[in-house]
Every structure is written in structure tokens, then in C-alpha cells.
Specification:
The complex is a heterotrimer of chains A (244), B (251) and C (284). Chain A has 244 residues and is of the alpha/beta class. Chain A is built from nine helices and ten strands. Chain A is globular, with a radius of gyration of 18 Å. Chain B has one domain: MetI-like (MetI-like fold, Orthogonal Bundle), CATH 1.10.3720. Chain B is flat and about 75 Å long. By secondary structure, chain B is mostly helical. The chains are: A alpha/beta (244), B mainly alpha (251), C mainly alpha (284).
């Protein structure tokens, strides 16, 4: 696939003596949504942290829009303009308002003019349906609202690829839905997304391809209908029977 | 001066009738030296507060650098100054180091140390309080969750940008109460300058009560003034803390 | 579902190892600490020797060794004062601290005023206060008590310790989650039972590190007693300097030596405090 936006080839990652990723390869075409599922400790979070160079890796290749991440001379800023990331714990900056959280990186990292950034930030907050909370501090927002601000904050960098690391895992059940709606909306607009998630129904509805990882390898991957309807591997079947 | 005359008369009357003798309120000589002592204490406090915070910031940076040598020097400084008596530190600087430093000669041809008592007291107290500030700032920085730094990195912040926009504002808010506490202690510790004859408040009070034999009165005055000085600092720091307060952040 | 609380059972390997008493917090001083300190002293001595403006009859090192017994006797007095002040301050401070969390308003306000006064007054000023205002002799009934200066210093240093201990007690009680009060109240405990059998035992662990910290600060502040004429290690250092002929080259080494004595004594306390702190740290 020549036009893949994200290409991972034979990625290996070890922490000390423990190899947590043992040769993973996958490709995400532009506009696709890839969901990575699997039991805890299977290396899912580490995998997407490798994609935007938060975690260095020893062996293999990760290419985003042709930029090789495993390059000692990598300009990390150049990479991160293209890759947005949303975390399980939101990680909003608690001393800044929602609006300021969205505006900080474009102004300080990309050095774009304030007026332009502010207009765009308001538009982004509107998109995640939080325009009325622009001047609230993270401490005044619910988990789901904070997570939507975090999504807007990442989008403000105008990324080509969005990474979501179990973004609903820390949320109250009633606010999970509002975050998933936001992500689905993004996917429908054509944003390329890689999600690590435990929301099987969401993966079934939104994903173009579902990957099942266990003990550092991709056990099986397929489009959702086939993956959930007719899993091949024994480990996948066991896992699905436990979570569905 | 005339406006103060009734006050002076009242305290003179108080002394005549009850023997409660606040000389500083009616005796111009005592009043002058007392005000001068108060001024020296304020100067000493302001200078050492600013210097000790600077020392703390530099030291906290020194504990985080890559060079093991710089880290080792910072660590030794902090441990040595935290765990030894400030009074002996002042003696060490004022007597010990002053003795080995070259002397200048004043207009009368008398030997005069290069650095005087006030300066040595300032240096010594700033280093003492600074060693506590290093630890306070470091613990503030360490209390910031690692995931917050990861988020900044993912947004493309450089190390310097992360430090200025995330670590510093958050760390400051976390360590402000501890800093206030230490600076209050510093104001109280400026009294140690007494030991090397810096004419600060305690020193001039001692002169006054030696002359006028009014120890209890001077003591009460002294305590009231220190409580006011500490109160001003605490009020300023609380005002600063409040202006930095954000909903849901801290207690 | 049961209403009883469920405590997850950790596998034995993951369970924190039970350790006896406080032994875990005691610092393990290695031979390297000793080497480091000796090296420091030698450096101080040789720097002073090199910079010495006037020649000495004896080497600085020999002088220090010669006067060590005298200095140590002074240092012992510092330690004794620190023990007594700490004991006095702790006992009075716990009482005052309980006053700070008392439910009767007058008691709480009186305790607050006392605490604020003794916390905000400079240690040296309090020391002067006690030296001047306490009588040399006291007669209580038929009992005749004499108060030497060092004992007045104990009182003078004990008062700020008391105020700080009171704050530590208050902070410790406050640090316990309000749910603990509610839970014990709903179980029918009286206020005193709640305080002494539920809250204080939990708060104790959190009060210990700041209390040890206070002891370290008190120990270094016992040197203030020298200013009011107590024959402690700093006074002795002055005597040593006079006996050695007031040589200016000796000033730095002798005071460095006194600093070192305190460092050797206080540093292990500081390490132990930090270990305890790390174990009881509350994450935000």
C-alpha cells in the first residue's frame, strides 16, 4: 500500500529485559480508522506512544507521511505537527482555561498569530460542543468535558493523524458517549485515527480495520464485520467471549 | 513631631505613674536607634528573601541537570547548609572567611574588612534559607505528574517551553505554602545577625533595655513588631497565592 | 452484592513486606559517608593552613585534635538541651495542638493565639526573654529550685518547639479524610473516642516526619544558647580560639569543625525523615 499515512514495520520495543513489542507491522491508509484492542499489558499503549516518538524504540520502522520516526536526527516538532494525541488522563493544563489550553500550543509551538488562533480555538470548542465552557478551568469540567477539550487541543495543531490512548477508560459511564460521538464525528470528516480502546461496540461501528494484540504481537486483524463475526485465532475468540 | 507629642506625653505619664517604661515612644535618642534597627531588619529581610529565592531557583535547576558534577555540588551545598546551625555558619563566614580575605584601609588608616557584618549576614542567611528553598522547589517540580509532561511533549513543546509553560507555573503553585513558611522563618532568623553586631532590631533593643532597664517592655514591643512583619509577608504571599489559584487545582 | 467492604487480597509477592517498627527509616551510614566527612575536614584545614596569614606553632589539625575533648563536652550540652527542649515542647505542644482542634471556641481561640505568638516570635528573642525574666531561684512551697542559664535556655527553646508541635498535631488531624470522622461518629463513638482511637493513630504516621524535621532544626538552634552565655560548643569554640592565641588562621577551621559535628549528628536524622516522608507521601 503506497499511499498509507502510517506504516509500521517490524517494530520491537523493550523495557530493560522485557520485550513488550515483538515485531509489529501495520498500515493505516489516509482517512481510515484503526482500532487496537487486546488485554491489558499487551503493549497497545506503548505501540501508539512509539508512533509520535514519546517512547524511543530499538528496532523497526515507523513512518508517518513518509517521516521516519526511528531516526536519531528526527525533528520531533515536524513529526508532532502531523500527529495529535489524546490521553487516558486528559492531561489538560490545570492552570489554564479550556480556551487557553486549546490556544497554547499553536501560539507557542507554531508561533501563529493570536487572533487567528483564538478564532480557530472557538470554532474547535464549538465543534466539541463546549463553546459555553471556553473560560472554565479544567477543574470545573466533568471528565467527559475535559476529554473533549483535550481532543480540541490536539486538533488545534491541525494534525493529519490522531492517536487516542484509551480515552474513555477513566470516564464515568454517562460521559463516555459524548466523547465517542466527538471521535465518530472526526472519523466521518475523514480524519485518520488510531484508537486503543476497550469499547467493542464503538470499534465495530467506526473502525475500518480492527487489530487484536496480545503479548506484544498482532494476533489477528480484519475489518470489523469479519473480526467480530468470524474470529479466526483461538486467543481472539477467548478474548471476545470475555468482553462481549 | 508635634502630632506625636501627645503620644510621647502619654507614655511619659505611663512611666511616671506605673513604671511601665516605653522609652522608644518619648525619648528621641531611643526612638531614633529603634527605628534605625527596624529599618536594618527590614533591609536584611528583603535582601535575604530575594537572594534566597534566587539561590533556590538556581539550586533546583542544578539538581536537575545532566552533569553529575553540578548535581553533586548542589546536593552537598543543600545538605551541608540544611543540617548545620545557621549561627555557626554566620560565624564561619564573618570570622573565618573574613580573616583570610584581604582587608582594605579606611580614611583613618584602620584595617577594615572587605565585606562588612551586614553583607556577611545577608550572604550567610541567604545561603541558609536558600538551601531549604532548593528542596522546596524541587519537591514542587517532582509533584507534577509525569503524564502532564508527556502531554506537553506530544503537543510539540521543547524542553524549555515545557519548563516555562507547564512545570514552572504548576510547580510554583504546589510549593508556595512551603515557601511562605520558609520565608517567615527567614525573617525570624535575621535576628541571628545580632551575634555579629549588625545593628538590627534585636541588637538595638538590647542596647535600649541595657540602658533603660526595661526588658519586659522592649520584649513585648519586639514580639509585636515581628508579628507585624511576619503578618505583612504572609498577607503578601497569600495574596499572591490567591491570584494564582485556579478552580480544581490544589486545595 | 454484599454491603460489607471487600478488601482485595494481593498475592503474597505483591504485598508490601511488613517491616518491624521504624528500623526501615534508619539511615544506613556507610564507610563512604565517613570518608567524605573526613575529607571535607582535611580540605577545610588545609585551605586554612595555606591561606594562613600568621604562622602557627602547631598545625591546625593537631590543634583541632588537642581541643576535641573540650569541644565534644560542649556539644554534649547542646544535645542535652535539644533532648530536654524537645521533650518539653512535645508534651506542651500536643496539649496545645489538641486545643487547636477542640470543639469549644474559647479553648480553640486561646490555643490559636498562643500558637501564633510562639511560632512567629524569633527563637533568639524568646531565648532572651526567658533568660531575663525567669528568676535564678524559685521557691515552690518548701522546695528550693535553682535555674541555671542552660535550664532557662531549655525553656526558651522549648516554647517555639511547643508551638510548632501544636501546628504539626493540627495538620496531622486535618490530613485525615473527613469520612473517618463521619464513619466513627455514625458508629456511636464519642468525640474523644474518635480523636484518640480513630484519628490520632492514623495521623501519627504523618506527624512523625515533620516532628523529626523540627528536632533537627531545634538541634542546630541550640547554638543560640551560646549568645546568652551558656557554655555550649560555640562558646567552647571561642574559648579554644582564645587559648590558641587568637590566631585568625584558626577561625575558619574551628568553626568548620563545629559545623561538622552538627552535620554528623543531624544528617542521619534528615535522611531518616526523608525516608519516612517518602513512605507516607500523599499523592495529589
Amino acid at each position: 500500500m503506497a499511499d498509507a499515512l502510517l506504516t509500521i514495520e517490524n517494530l520491537h520495543k523493550r523495557f530493560g529485559d522485557v520485550e513488550v513489542i515483538k515485531g509489529v507491522s501495520l498500515q493505516v491508509p489516509k482517512g481510515d480508522v484503526a482500532c487496537i484492542i487486546g488485554p491489558s499489558g499487551s503493549g497497545k499503549s506503548t505501540l501508539i506512544r512509539c508512533v509520535n516518538a514519546l517512547v524511543p524504540f530499538e528496532q523497526g520502522s515507523v513512518k508517518v507521511l513518509g517521516i521516519e520516526v526511528n531516526d536519531p536526527k528526527l525533528d520531533k516538532l515536524k513529526l508532532r505537527r502531523h500527529v495529535g494525541m489524546v490521553f487516558q488522563q486528559y492531561n489538560l493544563f490545570p492552570h489554564r482555561t479550556a480556551l487557553q489550553n486549546v490556544m497554547m500550543a499553536p501560539m507557542q509551538v507554531l508561533k501563529r498569530p493570536r487572533a487567528e488562533v483564538e478564532a480557530e480555538a472557538h470554532a474547535l470548542l464549538k465543534k466539541v460542543r463546549l463553546e459555553n465552557k471556553a473560560h472554565a478551568y479544567p477543574g470545573e469540567l466533568s471528565g467527559g468535558q475535559q476529554q473533549r477539550v483535550a481532543i480540541a487541543r490536539s486538533l488545534a495543531m491541525r494534525p493529519d493523524l490522531m492517536l487516542f490512548d484509551e480515552v474513555t477508560a477513566a470516564l464515568d459511564p454517562e460521559t463516555v458517549g459524548e466523547v465517542l460521538i466527538t471521535i465518530r464525528q472526526l472519523a466521518e470528516e475523514g480524519m485518520t485515527c488510531v484508537l486503543v480502546t476497550h469499547e467493542m461496540n464503538f470499534a465495530r461501528e467506526v473502525a475500518n480495520e480492527v487489530y487484536f494484540t496480545d503479548r506484544g504481537v498482532i494476533v489477528e486483524h480484519a475489518p470489523p464485520a469479519q473480526f467480530f463475526g468470524n474470529p479466526q485465532d483461538e486467543r481472539t475468540k477467548t478474548f471476545l467471549s470475555q468482553v462481549l | 513631631m508635634n502630632a506625636l507629642a501627645p503620644i510621647a506625653d502619654w507614655f511619659r505619664h505611663l512611666n511616671a505613674t506605673t513604671g511601665i517604661n516605653f522609652t522608644v515612644f518619648y525619648d528621641p535618642f531611643d526612638a531614633t536607634r529603634f527605628v534605625h534597627g527596624l529599618w536594618v531588619t527590614i533591609e536584611l529581610s528583603v535582601v535575604t528573601i530575594i537572594a534566597s529565592v534566587l539561590v533556590g531557583v538556581i539550586g533546583a535547576w542544578g539538581q536537575g541537570v545532566k552533569s553529575a558534577w553540578v548535581r553533586g555540588v548542589t546536593w552537598s551545598y543543600v545538605e551541608l547548609f540544611r543540617n548545620t546551625p545557621p549561627l555557626v555558619q554566620i560565624y564561619f563566614f564573618f570570622f573565618g572567611l573574613s580573616a583570610v580575605l584581604p582587608h582594605t584601609h579606611n580614611g583613618f588608616g584602620m584595617a577594615q574588612p572587605l565585606i562588612g557584618g551586614f553583607a556577611w549576614a545577608s550572604i550567610s542567611l541567604a545561603l541558609y534559607a536558600g538551601s531549604f528553598n532548593v528542596e522546596i522547589f524541587r519537591s514542587g517540580i517532582e509533584a507534577i505528574p509525569h503524564s502532564m509532561l508527556e502531554a506537553a511533549e506530544a503537543l510539540g513543546y521543547t524542553r524549555r517551553q515545557t519548563y516555562l509553560n507547564v512545570i514552572l507555573p504548576l510547580g510554583l503553585r504546589i510549593c508556595l505554602p512551603a515557601l511562605t513558611n520558609n520565608l517567615v522563618n527567614l525573617i525570624k532568623t535575621t535576628t541571628l545577625a545580632y551575634a555579629i553586631a549588625v545593628p538590627e532590631l534585636l541588637y538595638v533593643s538590647n542596647q535600649i533595655w541595657s540602658d533603660a532597664e526595661n526588658v519586659p517592655e522592649m520584649m513585648i514591643l519586639l514580639f509585636i513588631i515581628y508579628i507585624i512583619l511576619v503578618g505583612i509577608l504572609v498577607a503578601l504571599m497569600h495574596w499572591w497565592e490567591r491570584s494564582l489559584r485556579r478552580p480544581g487545582l490544589g486545595t | 452484592m454484599s454491603d460489607l467492604p471487600v478488601f482485595p487480597k494481593l498475592p503474597a509477592a505483591l504485598r508490601p513486606r511488613a517491616r518491624a517498627g521504624l528500623s526501615f527509616a534508619l539511615p544506613r551510614l556507610t564507610i563512604w559517608h565517613g570518608f567524605g566527612l573526613t575529607a571535607l575536614l582535611l580540605i577545610c584545614a588545609s585551605v586554612a593552613q595555606a591561606a594562613n596569614p600568621a604562622p602557627l606553632q602547631k598545625s591546625i589539625f593537631a590543634t583541632l585534635v588537642q581541643w576535641t575533648p573540650l569541644l565534644l563536652r560542649g556539644f554534649l550540652l547542646n544535645i542535652e538541651i535539644s533532648f530536654l527542649s524537645m521533650a518539653m515542647g512535645t508534651i506542651l505542644g500536643i496539649a496545645l495542638g489538641l486545643g487547636l482542634v477542640a470543639q469549644t471556641k474559647p479553648l480553640r481561640q486561646t490555643s490559636w493565639a498562643l500558637t501564633q505568638f510562639f511560632r512567629n516570635a524569633p527563637w533568639l528573642a524568646l531565648l532572651f526573654f526567658m533568660i531575663y525574666l525567669l528568676p535564678y531561684h524559685m521557691r515552690i512551697g518548701g522546695l528550693h529550685i535553682s535555674l541555671p542559664d542552660w535550664l532557662k535556655a531549655v525553656v526558651g527553646l522549648g516554647l517555639p518547639v511547643m508551638a510548632n508541635v501544636a501546628e504539626i498535631v493540627r495538620g496531622g488531624v486535618r490530613s485525615i479524610h473527613p469520612g473517618q470522622w463521619e464513619a466513627s461518629e455514625s458508629l456511636g463513638f464519642t468525640r474523644n473516642q474518635q480523636l484518640f482511637s480513630i484519628i490520632l493513630p492514623q495521623a501519627f504516621k504523618r506527624m512523625l516526619p515533620p516532628w523529626m524535621n523540627l528536632y533537627a532544626i531545634l538541634t542546630t538552634n541550640t547554638t543560640l544558647a551560646s549568645i546568652v552565655g551558656v557554655n555550649d560548643v560555640v562558646t567552647r569554640a571561642g574559648q579554644v580560639l582564645a587559648a590558641a592565641g587568637n590566631n585568625p588562621g584558626l577561625l575558619a577551621p574551628v568553626y568548620a569543625y563545629v559545623l561538622l559535628l552538627f552535620f554528623i549528628y543531624t544528617y542521619p536524622v534528615a535522611i531518616a525523615t526523608r525516608r519516612l516522608e517518602r513512605r507516607t507521601k500523599v499523592r495529589i
